[in-house]
Task: structure prediction
Amino acid sequence: MSHPVPQQPTIPQGYPPQPQPYGAPAPQQPYPQAAPQQAYAHPAQPYPVPPQQPPYPPHQPQYAQPQSTGQMAAGAAELSCRLCASVPAAKAKFRGHQGMLVIMRFLSLDGPFCRDCGLATYRTMTSRTLVQGWYGYASFIITPITVLWNLVPRGKVAGLPAPRPAAHGQSRRPLDPGPPLLLRPMSIIGLAIPFALVLLVVALIVANG
Result:
């Protein structure tokens, strides 16, 4: 048994079209497109490029050059005298000795000294040693050793040029060296003392013999 096929109703002429119950969807509007991004504009002037540094030279070991005599003399000239603050000065140490029968004293004065202050110190301490240094139980050996010892620092200060004020302006007048050692009355008396003592000992031995 066949079923009858329903027929579509006919729409009379002159009537407006009927909306379809399942009409086709309205056309979708496209999403608004974003504005095209502009390409990054480079600045008119390029960034300053630092100048290329020259390559480092190959490392070479540096060896200290030996100092000449003039350079060493210039370094020594920077010392100032401890007594008058004049320049130039040299490191030196003068010694003295006093013999007093049972006890004895060892004296010393350390520099640096300028030429005049060094010679004044040398002559004063040595001449006093010649007078005061013979009266101890070991002074007959210590006193001549002290006198000979002072000849070494005396040579250091005697070779310096004449003292002059230092650059800082706080120098004083150097000491007066005075007459040479062998022209001083105290030195002459000091040198005569050991001979007198030797003659005294010889006289006592002869008298008791």
Observations:
- Residues 74-208 form one domain.
